[in-house]
From TrEMBL:
This is Uncharacterized protein. It comes from Tilletia horrida. It comes from the Eukaryota. Residues 190-233 are annotated as: Disordered.
Length: 233
């Protein structure tokens, strides 16, 4: 299987849902939404998106979501999960939601500038019924959060997580600030993966703690009630 089949891009976090509608002759719901960019909170992205079985939700509201993200030619979201987080009256005055986290697997196309790597990502576009690819720029911070990380080679496959910092005015490409990344070169067919650590004999007992929302065990009730027995006269 070609490694390109694994390329993907996902957005997750909070997003404002503005409108929900049901397109004619479609089995999905259309969604208009908005979210701010990380380094330019006044720059708002208005993606169009699709989801299943959410017509009962009444916009506007703030949602917690996970969605496939296609940046170009227009931002599109294919929602995998979408749950209401806040109603309009619950949103604090002046509150700006944090920019969503972007995660994906991309191919490094140009690594001449070690601090700005151009790559190609792809994600599923439910509206079009196919995968779409788009160029992006990944920015490294070699003296800060990416200190010690090596520069990917051209053609490398990169797994990354970060934030969308801003969008270039001319190319409309999104610039992603890398929080974390790993990569494998084109020449390496199979990356070296260390063997997993040995499992304990009974992993459920070593750090066992009570779970919220569950009833206490008989032993706990007995301990609280005190010792039981027959009194003597």
């Amino acid at each position: 299987m070609p490694i390109e089949n694994l390329y993907d891009c996902t957005l997750s976090g909070l997003i404002q849902i503005d409108q929900i509608s049901k397109p004619k002759d479609k089995n999905y719901t259309a969604i208009d939404a908005q979210f701010p960019l990380d380094m330019s909170k006044d720059h708002i992205i208005y993606p169009v998106g699709t989801a299943f079985k959410i017509t009962q939700l009444q916009p506007p509201f703030v949602a917690d979501f996970i969605a496939g993200f296609v940046p170009l030619p227009e931002p599109k979201l294919t929602y995998y999960t979408l749950k209401k987080f806040m109603d309009p009256e619950q949103v604090p005055n002046g509150w700006i939601p944090p920019s969503p986290t972007i995660t994906g697997i991309v191919k490094a196309e140009n690594t001449d500038d070690p601090t700005a790597i151009r790559g190609t990502l792809q994600a599923y576009d439910r509206g079009a019924g196919k995968m779409r690819s788009a160029p992006v720029i990944l920015t490294r911070d070699p003296d800060g959060k990416n200190k010690g990380s090596t520069v990917p080679t051209k053609g490398a496959t990169i797994y990354f997580s970060g934030k969308i910092s801003f969008q270039q005015e001319t190319s409309r490409m999104f610039v992603i600030s890398l929080d974390h990344y790993t990569w494998v070169s084109q020449a390496e067919l199979t990356p070296a993966i260390p063997p997993p650590p040995a499992s304990p004999t009974d992993p459920s007992t070593s750090k066992k703690r009570p779970r919220l929302g569950t009833k206490q065990t008989t032993a706990q009730h007995s301990a609280e009630a005190g010792p039981s027995g027959t009194s003597s006269h």
